[in-house]
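Per reviewer request, we include the raw input and output of the structure prediction for the construct analysed in the revised manuscript.
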Amino acid sequence: MPVGRWLARFLGRAARDLLVVASLVVPTCAVLWLWGHFAGFDYVMAIHPVPLRTSRDASQSLWTPGWLWWTVFFGAGFGLSAGAVRHQGRDAWAITVACWSLLSGAALMHFGENLQFALPDHAPCLYEGCWPLYWQAVVVSAPMAVTLVVVIVLGWWAGRVGVWVRRVVPGLVFVGLMFLLALVWEPWVLPFLQGPPPWQGAAP
């Protein structure tokens, strides 16, 4: 076998293997970004009093070059699993990666939300039901959750949808929803989470 052909085949296999690894690592890192950094969105602790809830400036972390970079980077990463492993009909690898990201993200968000209660002498919740416990996690993780559902649907119908469509569409969905959430975060969403729950008043 000529050296050039062998080298091309070797590099092709290496590129495919790298794509498979990246298609799992990048969505997992996106889950960690959402869990550890809350994707740049302000975090309202259920045990914080009103002054601490309203003291931070949400605009300091959103729309920065770093936030934009990570949003676009992770958005592009959600489509890497499409066609990364050869398949006939449904793309089992893409579906598996998306399901893994959904389950691990839900578990980490549940764990992270309860960290504020880890110490035995933690402050009591400001509102009954510990508002906005879990609700803010649902709001912030919504763009990623919707994107992963899109990946699963496209992977299920992989035989009818082109591979490049399945690689590009999830990124567009994620970036679009993240930008939309960032636009409404400071004027509407954050004040709603900082205030009392809509169905009950302050705890006595």
